Q: What sequence folds into this?
């Protein structure tokens, strides 16, 4: 909640939702609707002023850095801007090693660590040998996002928050990134919370969809229920912003 003189702006208001193991949930809304704020609250990057965060059926206290580090072993994120997601002073092999160490692999033989890093890079069609001794900023935006997925492959979290993971990369790479995320979900049984303003992408990837407007969920259900049979005017407006897809869906019978 933010105060401006006598007015108050509530970024996220009475939001209550559940997601389950292996599910891909999309949160869809315009810029400023509260999607990223909600993601940061789930991650513990923003303090919750009211309410609680539950993980695996238990209330999670993430008020201290120590408790957050333990929590982050099971919940990770891919952010919209790959260029701000890395420490520019750390080389790529060091970034990947950190992931192995975070999962308790610090004492593994060096050869085993290299094998794990090679496997993670291969999963996203990158060659580890070509990345060694390079810094993240030496890669393209698409390569940086794929490297982020390689990090998730090594960390194997229970939940991944993917906040507009394709918005800053070229159209040719978007489908590849999404397919890699969905393959990774199937590979490790991970739940993905996909945050986007693009309702067409949400329909393509989602099991269920939540529509967010001004900090609140205004509609939710399966992808078919929400996007093919929208009830709220706001949802219908989001769909109308994607005219080609809207025409293909043919909502005239709804």
A:
């Amino acid at each position: 909640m933010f105060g401006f003189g006598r007015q108050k702006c509530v970024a996220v208001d009475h939001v209550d939702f559940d997601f389950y193991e292996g599910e891909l949930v999309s949160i869809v809304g315009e810029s400023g609707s509260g999607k990223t704020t909600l993601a940061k609250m789930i991650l513990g990057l923003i303090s919750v002023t009211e309410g609680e965060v539950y993980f695996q059926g238990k209330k999670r206290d993430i008020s201290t850095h120590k408790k957050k580090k333990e929590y982050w072993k099971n919940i990770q994120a891919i952010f919209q801007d790959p260029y701000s997601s890395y420490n520019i002073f750390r080389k790529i092999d060091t970034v990947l090693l950190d992931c192995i160490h975070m999962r308790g692999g610090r004492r593994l033989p060096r050869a085993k660590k290299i094998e794990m890093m090679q496997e993670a890079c291969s999963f996203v069609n990158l060659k580890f040998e070509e990345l060694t001794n390079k810094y993240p900023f030496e890669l393209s935006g698409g390569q940086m996002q794929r490297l982020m997925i390689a990090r998730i492959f090594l960390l194997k979290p229970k939940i991944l928050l993917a906040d507009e993971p394709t918005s800053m990369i070229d159209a040719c790479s978007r489908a590849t990134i999404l397919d890699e995320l969905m393959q990774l979900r199937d590979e490790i049984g991970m739940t993905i919370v996909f945050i986007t303003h693009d309702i067409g992408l949400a329909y393509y990837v989602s099991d269920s969809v939540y529509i967010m407007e001004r900090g609140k969920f205004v509609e939710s259900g399966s992808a078919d229920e929400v996007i093919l049979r929208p009830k709220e005017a706001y949802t219908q407006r989001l769909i109308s912003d994607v005219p080609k897809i809207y025409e293909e869906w043919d909502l005239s019978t709804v």
